[in-house]
Amino acid sequence: MTGTMTTSEATARRQILGAFLRAQREGLRPTALGLPVGARRRTPGLRREEVAQLAGLSTTWYAWLEQGRDIAVSPQALARLAAALNLDRAGRSYLFALAARRDPLPEPEGTAEPPATLAACVHACTAPAYVLDRLWNVPLCNAAAARLFAGWLDQPGPHNLLRFVFLAPAARTLLPDWEGRARRVLAEFRADCAAHLEDPPVRALLAELRESSPPFVALWRQQDVTARDGGGRSFRHPALGPIALQQNTFLVAGRTDLKLVMLTPGP
Questions:
Q1: Is the pLDDT of residue 67 over 80?
Q2: What pLDDT score was predicted for residue 80?
């Protein structure tokens, strides 16, 4: 459970986890879960044994968890505990983060429509802006992005960034340093989807690219990983000529499967 943390850091995290569980337990109303209040109930919210029973855990194990003891916690046990405590998405994510475990509940695969508020933001931008989902499809872009990405976003969809870079001839025209950009895009994607490499949609996309693009196969084997940081991006537009922009990527609140990408004029 400690990973690369020091002993004191691991102890502090277990104590924070215990305090969080206790606060959530004490904040629950027994009647809301169909439990009797009872005249002798002295504990606010639920008792430890009630949470343990709802989660299918032993009372002793749950008590040790609240006490911050160094015990093994499986993702499945945490999932049952999150359900027993009626945690929302933010609370569940916080629970798994404190326990340093991956949530076994599949996250959205990017099939849901982007929220209307995000669409309004994208179309309000004068600079090129588009949205990436978990598979790096582009469900949303503005007119400036469609003009910039000639041969991709100005064409009928669906649009996928990896398919464009590795399969579309227009990418080699638009991106002056195609090999360097392709290497970087793939390293960013590998880092971004590390927790989802075994998900069927991700496996299907990677299989398609292996079958269709020898450069993809060669670069994927190199195991490069990098964060999708901002920075200068150069384009060789077929109609507008050389263009230099600065890329910034933003996470979308409440939608962990979406990223907003903006390309603004450089300094």
A1: yes
A2: 93
